[in-house]
Design goal:
Blueprint: H1 2-25, H2 44-54, H3 58-67, H4 69-89, H5 97-118, H6 139-156, H7 162-186, H8 191-215
Helix pairs in contact: 1-8, 3-7, 4-5, 4-6, 5-6, 5-8, 6-7, 6-8
């Protein structure tokens, strides 16, 4: 169990390092002023080719925007679980360790989400309500892929019924895939925005999961 945890933690750290390198390459690799109002975009040839292929589909954009509230509900659900345990057990450190770690994890994820909303590495390929908006990494993709896998992982540690566990796992995978594809083909992001979000999210989740496997003896495989 501990060996598996170490592997996942190291893999997560490696993916976060890959995200950092990828982010540093964006301002220097194949940079051209092809964005809105002449803003410079890295990996321009690849991004432009993909954007021309997908076009812009605002229906997908609005749909994925609204569905992006679901991960926030998941955060609130686990937050409520932690609060109930805290009240019942009267001491914070008696709350399940994976839930305590999850609270820290969610705080870091939301802080990064807000940071990426403010720091413009790239701007969207189109104007949103007449305004230029930061687009790297895709914040909706990041939120979905960071949060939804924790529903499966933490749920599996608590749900006894295998039918429920498998159903939630399948529905979560479908939801995540649909959100990534919907965001990808909506045309409101560059391809690199989605790639960056996937690298960051995978790194964050594996780091969390690996930490739980190392710290919680009763962790699931």
């Amino acid at each position: 169990m501990r060996k598996n945890g170490k592997i996942q933690l190291l893999t997560g750290i490696g993916l976060l390092a890959a995200f950092a390198v990828f982010t540093l390459l964006l301002p220097v690799c194949n940079v051209r002023p092809v964005g809105q109002n002449g803003t410079e975009i890295g990996f321009a040839a690849c991004n432009l080719r993909f954007h021309c292929w997908t076009g812009v589909h605002m229906t997908w954009y609005h749909m994925t925007d609204w569905l992006g509230l679901i991960p926030l509900l998941v955060c609130m659900g686990f937050g409520g679980l932690g609060l109930v345990q805290w009240v019942q057990r009267r001491k914070l450190w008696l709350v399940d360790r994976d839930i305590l770690l999850l609270g820290v994890y969610y705080i870091v994820v939301i802080a990064c989400y807000l940071l990426f909303e403010e720091v413009a590495v790239n701007y969207r390929p189109i104007l949103i309500d007449g305004r230029m908006e930061a687009s790297y990494p895709s914040s909706t993709t990041l939120l979905v892929l960071c949060v939804m896998p924790t529903l499966v992982f933490c749920g599996n540690r608590r749900w006894k019924r295998s039918v429920l566990r498998h159903s939630i796992k399948i529905l979560t995978r479908i939801f995540c895939a649909g959100m990534v594809l919907g965001r990808l083909f909506s045309g409101v992001h560059w391809l690199t925005d989605i790639i960056g979000a996937v690298l960051f999210s995978a790194g964050m989740f594996l780091s969390y999961r690996g930490t739980v496997l190392l710290c919680c003896q009763d962790a699931d495989k």
